Amino acid sequence: MTTAPENNTALLHTAYRAVESGDLDAAEHLLTEDFIANVPGLSEPLVGRDVWRLGTQAMKDAFPDLKIDIQDVFGVGDKVTVLLHFEGTHLGAFQQIEATGRRVRFGSIEVYRVEGDRIAEEWVAPDMLGLIRQISPAPAGH
């Protein structure tokens, strides 16, 4: 017999595989219509599938070969926590930094809330500082 946490962790695996393969339509259909994104640095959450789509598309545009390496995943009740690493090549502009062609690797800690068979809410804490350091130009004189 499958438990709700097992179904929820399987749902997240499916979503990550869809994002990694570039099938953002399939991934988007795994979200509730009123999906909530809790993003570091913003005082209010963002609402809607389109918000998720914009952020994810920006990552895929900047790192088209993005690979997602799930280190650990566990679910309790309606929540799933994922520890993962992203890896890819900086081939498109990201955060106003033009493509460098550099390989990058950065981690993230992500928590999701599941409603039924869809992802309803996320709290993500990617190591954006680590990523930006990897793609930023070297300081003058170096």
Concise description?
The chain is of the alpha+beta class. Helix content is 32%, strand content 37%.
Salient structural properties:
single chain; 142 residues; alpha+beta; six-stranded mixed sheet; 32% helix; globular
Number of β-strand runs: 6
Major beta sheet summary? 6 strands, mixed
Fraction of residues in helix: 25-40%
**CA-based shape:** globular
Please tell me the overall pLDDT.
93
Assembly status: single chain
Description:
This protein has helices spanning 4-21, 24-28, 49-62, 128-135; strands spanning 31-38, 46-47, 67-76, 79-89, 103-115, 118-126. The chain has 142 residues and is of the alpha+beta class. It has a six-stranded mixed β-sheet. A hairpin with a 2-residue loop joins strand 5 (103-115) and strand 6 (118-126). It is globular. It starts with a helix and ends in a 7-residue tail after the last helix.
Topology:
Elements: H1 4-21, H2 24-28, E1 31-38, E2 46-47, H3 49-62, E3 67-76, E4 79-89, E5 103-115, E6 118-126, H4 128-135
Parallel strand pairs: 1-6
Antiparallel strand pairs: 1-2, 3-4, 4-5, 5-6
